[in-house]
Amino acid sequence: MHFSPSERRAARLPLRARLARGVLCVLVAGGVAAGVANCAPPAGPRDGGPAPRLSAPTSASPLWPDDTPAPGRPDKAAPTYARYLPLEKVRVPKAGVTALSAKNLLMLDPNVTSFVQMSVKPCPKSYCPLREPEYRDLTGDGRDEMVVAVDLPKFDRTLLEIYAVSGRTVRPILIFWGPLGLGGDTYGRDLLITATSATGRYTTRFHWNGEVMAAVTPDGTTSPPEGLPPDVIGTPDPGLAPRDGSGSGPDTSTETRKKP
Length: 260
Fold this sequence. Notes:
- This protein is of the alpha+beta class.
- It has four helices and eleven strands.
């Protein structure tokens, strides 16, 4: 029988040394097994400790429970808008306002100042402040309205009007004065007027409210626009907005007159 060198060395060890060596090997093997067992995830449910205590939600605690607030003031009634004066001398053809002349409408419009009428009277000669009209259905009645703009460089202003069919005649549904060269877009049936003034570029949105094209405020309500005509034009003809009562001249900042 042949033994390896390590076996021969082990055979020469005393009995006590061999027993100690065997015990050491058993202890090492047991420690390794225990370490592997500790690394393995625990199986089954385990106790995670006591649950956190629950607290009731915070509620309001009045400082003066015996006092009740006074009722607030009632909101002001929404403004009612009166229509612009109709163009009594204009009869609507079957094709609607698209078949009418923008110049003739301005010349027969009682809501327009005489200065504007004199400015467009030479049209369509070499110089004409009247732009080509545009047509859009802004009221939702299936018929196009006429959008008219008159540029007045002398006063650094542009007048924008929208004419719509009203019964058997025509009337404006928007009269707006803005900075010279203002532009416009349609957004659905709303009108967006964009202009540049000394305070920067701004856009005003107008929406048909059943009577006029009223300016839409950020909260979704409607209000009069702030466009003002040049002061040098003078007092407007009957049909524009009434005076504001301050003695400062006609209040043409509104697109329509308000009922008293």
